[in-house]
Amino acid sequence: MKYAIGAIIGIALFAWLFSVCSPAGKNKTGHEYMPDMYHAVSYEANLLTNYSWNHWDDESSFPKASLSQPRGKVAGTIARGYTGVHYTDATALDVVRGKNAANAIAAPVNGEVPFYYENTPEDRIRCEKEIPTNPFPQTQEGLDRAKPLYNIYCGICHGEKGDGQGWLAANPDTKYPAQPKNLLDADLVAAGDGRIYFAMMYGLNVMGGYADKLSYEERWQVIHYIRSLQGGAKK
């Protein structure tokens, strides 16, 4: 009898251990040997969900959304080798290309510059007033470079024509919660370039910012491309 009870307990224990090591399938990850071996306790960039055992929000003064956003550089600084200037300043170009004796370190022109505006409605208006025009000259080369960037980052919502009928808004199988801005509207045609640049830096409403995806020059070239779409639509 004792042996029978022991056998039953042994079989039950073996079955339980086997179930603990159940394999993954479909939407189930299976059982884990240790939680941290599959679920990272760190926050993932651009991901607002987190592992249920992660209790950092209980100890942190930062909201989950801010913890999961891409980390930026120290305010007012530029990484070495990433100085951004516009083409019309030939002297500055000589410096960043290492042709100046005072600075022999070449840096890519397609870099970055400080942005002296906070993400507030007041600074949004100030940015539009203080930056009415694009610092880069409009060239066919710049438009050719900007077109795929626009289609990747902007066209999905605003449409390849800029009419607000991007795939997320116009596709019959999608239910996007907000109508993307029609970039061909009269108010944006008349707006200063700083207004569009500000939106690229910080985003607006459901649109996120693109400061970490488009460099200084790329943002301005995309704005040139948006203006070319407006010009084509308005003939």
Describe the 3D structure.
The chain is mostly helical and 235 residues long. It has 3 domains: 2-67, no CATH class; 72-114, no CATH class; 116-234, Cytochrome c-like domain (Cytochrome Bc1 Complex, Chain D, domain 2). It has helices spanning 2-20, 56-59, 64-67, 90-96, 121-130, 140-153, 155-158, 167-170, 186-190, 193-202, 216-234. α5 (121-130) packs across α10. The mean pLDDT is 77.
Q: How would the blueprint of this fold be written?
A:
Elements: H1 2-20, H2 56-59, H3 64-67, H4 90-96, H5 121-130, H6 140-153, H7 155-158, H8 167-170, H9 186-190, H10 193-202, H11 216-234
Helix content: 40-55%
In CATH, the topology of the largest domain is named: Cytochrome Bc1 Complex, Chain D, domain 2
What string gives the helices and strands in order?
A: HHHHHHHHHHH
**Radius of gyration, in angstroms, nearest whole number:** 27 Å
Largest sheet, in brief, is: none
Mean pLDDT: 77
Q: What is the number of domains? A: 3
Gross CATH architecture of the largest domain: Orthogonal Bundle
Shape type: elongated
Please tally the helical runs, counting DSSP H or I stretches of 4 or more residues: 11
CATH hierarchy, class of the largest domain? Mainly Alpha
Could you list the spans in which at least 5 consecutive residues all have pLDDT below 50?
Answer: none
Question: Into which percentage range does the β-strand content fall?
Answer: under 5%
Q: What is the tally of beta strands?
A: 0
Termini separation (Å)? 96 Å
Based on secondary structure, the structural category is mainly alpha
Specify the CATH homologous superfamily of the largest domain.
Cytochrome c-like domain
